[in-house]
């Protein structure tokens, strides 16, 4: 039978526990392929590389070539054994795309990378691509704005986590704006927007309707 899996490109830490889900166990079972950005960056500078590295662009003068990173995604989606069943509905997690901008990769190159990943994961294998991007807010960052706008046009579901306009609150940590785009619907019914407030707990996140918490009126 087809199997489910995820490919994670992470720029921060090794997989362990994420909101009650053991990523380490998923990795050991072959359900998660994980590329740790920081460790891989150290390897590419201080260890000899026989094969092209997914983060090869870090050593190149032209830092816009993300083809090795895309090829890593392609390879991760292939069954490890020719006799194994193909993956079913894979998920590509990218945490986060904004780091690529800070490393000198242009927004257009990042959008091209996402486009090819969507073609492979979404169209060919009927999966999903989930990417994190930071909003620079009031700061003027043209490249980040291009990336945000480009991803916004490609996305069917946008989750925007932000702080409360009223400031810090110990019982409500922020609000989540959800924009759900349905291209198949008529123009007037295509976009649906919802807003929830949330509180982050030890291994869980509580969501509730805006204004339902007595701490925020």
Automatic annotation (TrEMBL):
Keyword list, A-Z: Cytoplasm, Nucleus, tRNA processing
GO terms under cellular component: cytoplasm; elongator holoenzyme complex; nucleus
GO biological process: tRNA wobble uridine modification
Top-level taxon in the UniProt lineage: Eukaryota
UniProt keyword Nucleus present: yes
Signal peptide as annotated in the record: none
Compartments, as annotated in UniProt: Cytoplasm; Nucleus
Pathway(s) annotated for this protein in UniProt: tRNA modification; 5-methoxycarbonylmethyl-2-thiouridine-tRNA biosynthesis
Keyword tRNA processing: yes
Entry-linked InterPro entries: ELP6, P-loop_NTPase
Function noted in UniProt: Component of the elongator complex which is required for multiple tRNA modifications, including mcm5U (5-methoxycarbonylmethyl uridine), mcm5s2U (5-methoxycarbonylmethyl-2-thiouridine), and ncm5U (5-carbamoylmethyl uridine). The elongator complex catalyzes formation of carboxymethyluridine in the wobble base at position 34 in tRNAs. Involved in cell migration.
Complex formation: Component of the elongator complex which consists of ELP1, ELP2, ELP3, ELP4, ELP5 and ELP6.
PANTHER family: ELONGATOR COMPLEX PROTEIN 6
Family to which this protein belongs: Belongs to the ELP6 family.
Protein name (database record): Elongator complex protein 6
Species assigned in the record: Balaenoptera musculus
């Amino acid at each position: 039978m087809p199997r489910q899996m995820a490919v994670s490109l992470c720029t921060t830490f090794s997989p362990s526990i994420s909101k009650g889900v053991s990523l380490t166990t998923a990795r050991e079972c072959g359900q998660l392929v994980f590329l740790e950005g920081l460790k891989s960056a150290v390897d590419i500078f201080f260890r000899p590389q026989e094969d092209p590295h997914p983060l090869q662009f870090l050593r190149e003068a032209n830092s816009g070539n993300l083809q090795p990173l895309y090829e890593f995604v392609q390879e991760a989606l292939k069954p490890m054994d020719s006799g194994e069943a193909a993956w079913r509905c894979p998920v590509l997690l990218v945490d986060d795309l904004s780091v690529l901008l800070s490393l000198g990769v242009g927004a257009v190159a990042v959008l091209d990378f996402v486009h090819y990943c969507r073609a492979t994961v979404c169209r060919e294998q009927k999966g999903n691509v989930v990417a994190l991007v930071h909003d620079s807010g009031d700061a003027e960052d043209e490249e980040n704005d291009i990336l945000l706008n480009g991803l916004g046009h490609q996305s069917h579901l946008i989750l925007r986590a932000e702080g409360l306009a009223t400031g810090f609150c110990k019982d409500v940590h922020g609000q989540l704006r959800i924009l759900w785009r349905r291209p198949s619907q008529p123009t007037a019914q295509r976009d649906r927007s919802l807003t929830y407030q949330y509180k982050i707990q030890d291994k869980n996140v509580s969501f509730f309707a805006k204004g339902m918490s007595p701490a925020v009126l």
